[in-house]
Amino acid sequence: MGTIIFIVLCWYLVKGREDPGVRRKMKGLLGTIPKLIGGFFSIMAITVVFSILASGFFTAFSGFIPFIIICAIISKLVKSGKNEKKREKSVEYREIKQKVNQGAGYKLTQSTSKRVKIVSKFNKKFGLNLTEDQVERIMNASYISYYWEKEIYDMSQDYNVQVEWLKSDTDWLRAYLMAFPVMDIASDFSVQKKIVVDAYYQIFKGITAKSYYSIDEMIKDVNNRYLVNFNEMTFMIAHKFLKQNGHDFELPRIGVTRVETDVERLAREYDRMEDINSTPTPLAR
């Protein structure tokens, strides 16, 4: 029995833990451990009898364990070479290589647990509000999308301040993760792009530039009305991204500064409240 457990553990450590499907099954198995303990003693006698009968077979078989481990390692190395060739032929990978200045020669661990740890640590450090389910979804997506793989790789790098992370061809996605407390995560990167476009569009279509004297005033009002957390940088990234996708929204025109009287300020606030009450507020994602 001990030999069987040893073989299973060797297989899991060498190969099984790198498989997202096996990872999910292991998590489910861990959840059923209390139930398994309850039934353990009822099958102990059968296990002892079986172990005695099969001990001769397992004793002979145990000699092959080192050979099995070596074959598993060789198989992993061969598979790694095939994956590298597949990566080079991928359209998505070549797009990244063309867009990213330093090229796409990044290397990300194949371990599912380490990828989850990278995203979770970054999520906690910079307060992205990703749920455990969304972290798992990003990890799973990174095995089928080189864009998501690159996102996790970039999360593993050191940043002095959060805005350094925004310097990327995918700044539109990173601004979305920073600004929205509730997010939608899709494994398909083209679907993710559409989600972000729609989320930004709902924000910008509900505001009128001429109602504000400055961009800072607009951002503050947007954050209060839609319960989001834009700063000047993420707000401008969102505006630029919408323009690139065919939605050009006007920003406040900054003219000569003048002193606003209390009466003018109250009148402007009243007009704005009238606009808000008369137009249903679209729901942000």
Strand content: under 5%
Unreliable stretches covering 5 or more consecutive residues: none
Number of strands: 0
Query: Largest sheet, described in full?
Result: none
What's the tally of helices?
13
Give the helix level as a range of percent: 55-70%
SSE class: mainly alpha
Q: What are the main properties of this structure?
A:
285 residues; mainly alpha
Helix and strand topology:
Elements: H1 2-14, H2 20-31, H3 33-61, H4 65-89, H5 91-99, H6 112-126, H7 132-141, H8 146-155, H9 171-179, H10 189-204, H11 215-226, H12 232-244, H13 262-278
Helix pairs in contact: 1-4, 6-7, 9-12, 10-12
Provide structural commentary:
The chain has 285 residues and is mostly helical. The chain contains 13 helices and no strands. The longest helix is centred in the N-terminal third of the chain and has 29 residues, at 33-61. It has helices spanning 2-14, 20-31, 33-61, 65-89, 91-99, 112-126, 132-141, 146-155, 171-179, 189-204, 215-226, 232-244, 262-278. Helix 6 crosses helix 7 (132-141).
